[in-house]
Amino acid sequence: MLNRIPQLSPGVRLMLLSTLAYLGVNTCVKQLGHWPTHQLIFFRSVISLVITMTYLWQAGVRPIFGHRPMVLALRGLAGIGALYFYFYTLQRIPMASAVTIQYLSPIFTAIGAYFILGERMKPQRWLYFLVSFCGVLLVKGIDVRLTTLDVMMGIAGALCSGLAYTFVRKASGHEHAMVIILYFPLLATPITGSLCLWEWRMPVGQEWLWGIAMGLFTQMGQIWATSAIQKEALNKVTYINYLGIFYALVIGYFFYDEGYDLVSGCGMLLVIVGVVLNLLDQDKRRRLKVMVIKRQQNGPVVRHKPPAN
Q1: CB 3.0–4.6 Å: which of 30, 49, 138, 180 could bond 185 by disulfide?
Q2: What is the reported pTM?
Q3: In whole angstroms, what is the distance from residue 112 CA to residue 155 CA?
Q4: Domain coordinates of the chain in residue numbers?
């Protein structure tokens, strides 16, 4: 019976860990909702920059700034846009709604991977995306607490996130995972730091702890997500991000009194259905691939005819 349970690939397992880490990030951002958005990004960027540079130096990774700086710079800029727009919506609307809009990013990622990277997808995978997308529309469409600006900012964040994932995949195979991660804080620190000169709120008391935790959770989430993307095709692992909607729903309901009605529940159910279908399809193809490899290694079976009498 245990053999019938789908075995998750390493890339999927890493992306699942990443979603849990980003749940911690979301909670920290909610607790620091009164901070300017650029200050949040600056705070987590400084922490990430120190951790990443220390690791690269001690591990002897060379060149530290990678072999494809242009691609990595585009990944960093797209990541800055994604985080800014996402933090903006997360501070202003219910957590589950912000996360739901952000998780349109796998749609943009799949499109980017198709046109930029040339990754092929079977027709049924587009159907799975459509199922989850319809679920997102249900959640977003009936939430009157969302303004047009909130929705536009959220979609912009999803678009930037999808582009960032695409550039990560493009750099994979050429760069160390930590080098790819480095470019976000490397660019974000001076950009958001300059904005902090104009608007800054001095942290007090527990705000320091929430800010440090946000940086640490983000670092772990980035490491796991980047490693997952390096191990698997984009359209296989980024889909797992949709599970974050359910994490946000639970946290928002129990800690921030963010209620949702039956229609929202149906929308989120559609999202998880799309995720499960995608995982089952991926596991089936992985098993078939393993069988083919084993047959190739063992060689064809030669049947000898019995000698004629």
Answers
A1: 49
A2: 0.76
A3: 15
A4: 10-196+207-297
